[in-house]
Write a structure and sequence with these properties.
Strand content: 25-35%
Low-confidence stretches: none
CATH architecture: Alpha-Beta Complex
Number of domains: 1
Largest sheet: 7 strands, mixed
Radius of gyration: 17 Å
Shape: elongated
Order of helices and strands: EHEHEEHEEHEHH
Helix content: 25-40%
CATH topology: Maf protein
Length: 196
């Protein structure tokens, strides 16, 4: 069967979520700079990046299908924690998140012809204390290397989550409820069937 949309992302987590929704899609990742502007809020940055990804992929799209772009960022004290540059950066991020509550902003943009729709979730995640030894072992697992905030809530870091207020799937990388609503506004139905 033919695709219903393009996914402007290399993220296997986002692809898995779309499969979970029973959607047919093709991956059309577009490389865009992921560097917040000075003073840019986490929410504005996530939305701008998701829009940039969707626009870049839409320009490459061989067929006139809706294009979905998404971006998720982790922030604490108003500062965006991107993907760690190296081991030291990852350990510093985990030390900041240890025993505290941080925010995860997940923005989704769908471009369908001249129509541009967007949505966003803001989720508060509270961590327990993380020891230096735990953080070091976590880095060695390889999991945090390409993750915003140096952790994956769906992976080994789940054991540190004391509470979550908001969208779990948004923290993973794609808020499912909001994404379905967005796609439906663009004529793409999800949830009609269960992926098998």
């Amino acid at each position: 069967m033919s695709a219903q949309l393009y996914l402007a992302s290399r993220s296997p987590r986002r692809a898995q979520f779309l499969l979970q929704l029973g959607l047919r899609f093709e991956t059309l990742p577009a490389d865009v700079p992921e560097q917040p502007a000075p003073g840019q809020s986490p929410a504005d940055y996530a939305l701008a990046t998701a829009l940039a990804k969707a626009r870049a992929a839409a320009e490459l799209a061989p067929l006139p299908l809706p294009v979905l772009g998404a971006d998720t960022d982790v922030s604490i004290d108003g500062e965006i924690l991107g993907k760690p540059r190296d081991r030291g950066d990852a350990l510093a991020m985990l030390a900041r998140l240890s025993g505290r509550t941080h925010e995860v902003c997940s923005a989704v943009v769908v471009i369908s012809g001249d129509q541009v729709e967007s949505t966003m979730t803001l989720t508060r995640v509270s961590f327990c204390s993380i020891s230096a030894a735990q953080a070091a072992a976590y880095w060695e697992s390889g999991e945090p290397a390409d993750k915003a905030g140096a952790y994956a809530i769906q992976g080994h870091a789940a054991r540190w989550v004391k509470s979550i207020e908001g969208s779990y799937s948004g923290v993973v990388g794609l808020p499912l409820y909001e994404t379905c609503e967005l796609l439906q506004r663009c004529g793409v139905n999800c949830g009609d069937g269960i992926a098998t």
